[in-house]
Amino acid sequence: MESTILNRARRRHAHIVFVDEAGFMLAPNLRRTWAPKGCTPILRIADPHYRISAIGAISISPAHRRFCFYFYLLTDNANFRGPSLVVFLNYLRRRIHGPITLLWDEIPIHRARVVQRFIHKHRTIVVEEFPPYAPELNPVDYVWSYVKYSRLANNCPPNLDVLRNQITAEFRRLQKRPNLLRSFFNHTGLSLTPIEPPDDFDEIP
Questions:
Q1: With 80 as the cut, is the pLDDT of residue 29 above it?
Q2: Cα(54)–Cα(164) distance, integer angstroms
Q3: pTM
């Protein structure tokens, strides 16, 4: 992680929180699979356009570097907008006790007026933006890839209720695997070690 961002977060004893949004469709994410010779697998799709929008956050605690995962799913076929984003941010604020350094990309919804008003009101939240077109720097993006293309590959749920239950089960499973969350962070190539630690913060071995 850029040392200036990390140093600012350390001075505030802030949790580092990565946030990203994604969509899950009834249409399957196709992957190679096994089948009897001469029997091509057939995937029956209920409706390829139905979807569930999700938002997720990976947090890293300031003292013990503990990794946690939080998520929120919208109602069927809904898109995230400023007000729904604020609902999730308020949820994070209540679950994470202490200052937050929030890292996300520069999409317009993150700059919506209602979002900016919420951040201005809650001064314990400081926003740091990723450079444009750099999803590989956000570990939550690897959560989406892992769930979509590994855990739920070739998945053909009959309806959105089943898909919602599947997504929820996978996310709750991730919440119990902090080492896997850490591996997603490590895959970004970012570092939690600042170049010059601030004088008022003891170095963590």
A1: no
A2: 10
A3: 0.86
